Amino acid sequence: MHQSSILLAILSLWTFRINSKAVLPVVGPKRFDVAITSFSLTDSDRLDPFANDGRKRSIVVSGFNPTARCQRKQLQLYMPPATALFQDDKFSAYGLPNGSFQSLYLEVCQKRANRSPCSAGAHSFTSLPLAVFSGALGTSRLIYSSMLQSVAAAGYLVVSVDHPYDADIVEFPDGTTITGIDIESDTDVDLALNTRSEDIRFLIRQFANSDIVDKLFPGNIPKQHDRHIAAIGHSLGGAAAADAMLHDPSIAAAINIDGTMFGQVLAAGLDRAFMLIGHENKTQDTDPSWKTVWPLLKGWKKELEVKGAAHYSFSDLPLVTTVLGLQDRLPEEVELVLGNVEGHRMAEIEVALVTSFLGSVFKSRSGGEFGDELKEFPEVVDVA
To answer: What SS3 class is residue 34?
Structure first.
């Protein structure tokens, strides 16, 4: 066979791979199937500080709802069309072929025409702890959907939130999109942090509205008594989770995943359970903000380092590249962004860290049970 024919055959197989459906798996302890619902919420009491046109602040959220009895499953697009096209263009710079994000799916519990997406039965669970998630600056909430689905499958209600103008793109249910703006100066970062923190607190207040709860979690009720809410964030989202907990006593615990700390918490500290998770070489020794806040954390606290991880190892991207068969084909420079931990393994590590923390907080307020599940992950270093 001529070299040109061989090349054509390889390209044909490659095109088939990218154009085929690729399903991101649930990892970790799968106790439940999960339904996913997305919609927008508008805070009528607050103007959007980035819009400059007098509009009220709106956010887009995804709810991950565990169900014990899923009557039917379906494949659901990993992200809606405009967002997938945007991400394809963005990540082509990292070597991902065109069509990568358009080919991705999640296996979910099918929504039904009546109120409940998946019947959980009259005697099923009705009240579960709630985790609210905020992603990195310039990053869509949807880049974390597989990880959050796995957290929900372990038995937690999960909501992720997109923060318009500081996310790279936010696609509203009506197809309207808002692309991100440059947020670089200290003033801009402070505004983004405060806006994110207010978005998270606004979202948590909506759980007092039964109609909102019904849309996000049909068949389930978030535990609101005795502070059964956790705030989790990656990068700037981690700093926002800490700031939201500082200002909202209903938040029992928070996790900052690989994020530099900003804002009032650096002086005020926190009095509830808090965990720092860093990529390799991101610790108190290398991040002054972590060193500053550590002695001010008066509740249960933990600092962990994940060897082989880089900043975006804590998104779905390593798993995406593995599922698409790309992890060993990308430019070497990508390792600086995604790390060198195999995609499934990295997803298992992150889900184990998050669910172990949530389990210890909501089962034992001392946090004393944390870490039993992590012995099988030598990549995770207990720093402090």
So the answer is: strand
Query: What gap in Å lies between CA 309 and CA 277, rounded to an integer?
Result: 11
The closest of 288, 330, 278 to 308, measured between CA atoms, is 278
Q: What is the pLDDT of residues 190-209, one digit of tens each?
A: 999 999 999 999 999 999 89
**Would you state the structure tokens that stand for residue 88, as one six-digit string?**
């394809």
Q: How many residues does the chain have?
A: 384
pTM here?
Answer: 0.90
3-382 carries CATH number 3.40.50.1820:
yes
State pLDDT tens for residues 15-37. Answer: 434 557 899 999 998 999 999 99
C-alpha atoms less than 13 angstroms from C-alpha of 346 in its C-beta half-sphere = 29
Q: Where are the beta strands (DSSP E) in the chain?
A: 22-24, 33-47, 56-67, 73-77, 104-109, 127-128, 130-134, 157-162, 169-171, 177-179, 221-222, 229-234, 251-257, 273-279, 301-306, 380-382
* Terminal-to-terminal C-alpha distance of the chain: 60
CA-based radius of gyration for the chain: 20
CB atoms inside a 10 Å sphere around CB 176:
12
Instruction: Name 210's Cβ contacts closer than 8 Å, sequence gap at least 6.
Output: none
Contact status, residue 207 vs residue 130, Cβ threshold 8 Å:
yes
Contact 218, 117 (CB under 8 A): yes
In sequence order, the 6+-apart residues with CB closer than 8 A to the CB of 133 are: 141, 144, 148, 158, 159, 160, 161, 232, 233, 237
Contact indicator for 291, 317 with CB cutoff of 8 Å: no
